[in-house]
Specification:
292 residues, alpha+beta, 2 domains, two-stranded antiparallel sheet, 12 strands, 22% helix, elongated
């Protein structure tokens, strides 16, 4: 027969760090003689862990704290002494070579300082001729100048470009000459418009030239500013028109009139005035790359 008497209350299980149940007291005997651990039954008391259980609870806390401290120290040492330099990928730069002439440009013997400053090549166009001329393309150049050159360039495949370069003694004379050419182009553009008036006569040269104001916007004329190293050195204007020229007959007959559709860019750079004439499809790049 089973013995009579009250059974001792089982000891409540103690839950340590991370929910692990540690034995918080002695084992309790069950009626059938099996051992009941302290965490298998509920009790009213909450006794502190003692013995080996308390040791493992404290050791686990210290172990976790030590692990975090070791990670922090290791990270600091790595960041201070062992972190590699950032990888910098240099940008990829593609250099596109500009076209050059397929022939050797003309080299002028004993050129003046002004002529030496003018380029012998412009993209694929090379210098063919350099003529010292007077008062071209207008009938009378409006102011006294030091020297004037008519330069002819070509690309070796039938494309041509001409540049008239005029060097003046004073800045005021160059400015007046540029304004004179602009006034002529303005009158010509207005006359070409439907119902336009006849071109006004060009102003006569003056020993004391005065600069007139630039005209208001006129259809067919595009104004611009010439800059060198981000500093404005003059103005420019562009006109596209038809130009008719007479081509001599090699057999001695009557010359043939040929009409070309061209663009003319006129600009001032200090005491020099330039007039560039070329095909409309290429003159924009030629003007941009014409280094003075």
């Amino acid at each position: 027969m089973p013995s009579s008497g009250s059974l001792p209350a089982p000891t409540e299980a103690k839950r340590g760090l991370f929910g692990i149940s540690w034995l918080g007291g002695r084992k309790a005997d069950t009626r059938d003689g099996t051992s009941l651990s302290s965490g298998a039954a509920s009790g009213d008391g909450d006794e502190p862990s003692t013995g080996i259980a308390a040791f493992f609870e404290r050791a686990s806390v210290l172990l976790v704290l030590g692990l975090f401290a070791l990670i922090g120290v290791g990270a600091g040492v790595y960041l201070m002494f062992f972190r590699p330099d950032p990888v910098v990928i240099p940008p990829v730069v593609h250099n596109i070579a500009l076209p050059t002439p397929t022939f050797s440009p003309l080299t002028v013997t004993d050129p003046t300082a002004f002529l030496s400053s003018l380029p012998k090549t412009d993209l694929k166009y090379g210098l063919r001729t350099a003529e010292s001329t007077v008062m071209r393309p207008v009938a009378v150049w409006p102011s006294r100048f030091a020297e004037e050159w008519l330069l002819t360039y070509d690309d070796g495949a039938g494309g041509t470009m001409t540049v008239q370069a005029v060097q003046h003694y004073k800045l005021e004379a160059a400015t007046f000459a540029f304004q004179h050419l602009l006034d002529d182009a303005t009158a010509e553009a207005r006359a070409a418009q439907p119902g336009g008036a006849s071109p006004a006569p060009a102003p006569s040269p003056s020993s004391s030239p005065s600069v007139s104001p630039s005209p208001s916007a006129v259809a067919g004329i595009v104004m611009g500013t010439v800059s060198v190293n981000n500093a404005a050195v003059g103005k420019s204007f562009t006109v596209t028109k038809d130009v008719t020229e007479s081509v001599p007959d090699p057999a001695g007959g009557e010359p043939t009139k040929v009409t070309h559709h061209v663009t003319v860019v006129t600009w001032q750079n200090g005491t020099a005035v330039f007039v560039m004439t070329a095909d409309p499809a290429v003159i924009g790049d030629l003007f941009t790359e014409y280094g003075i």
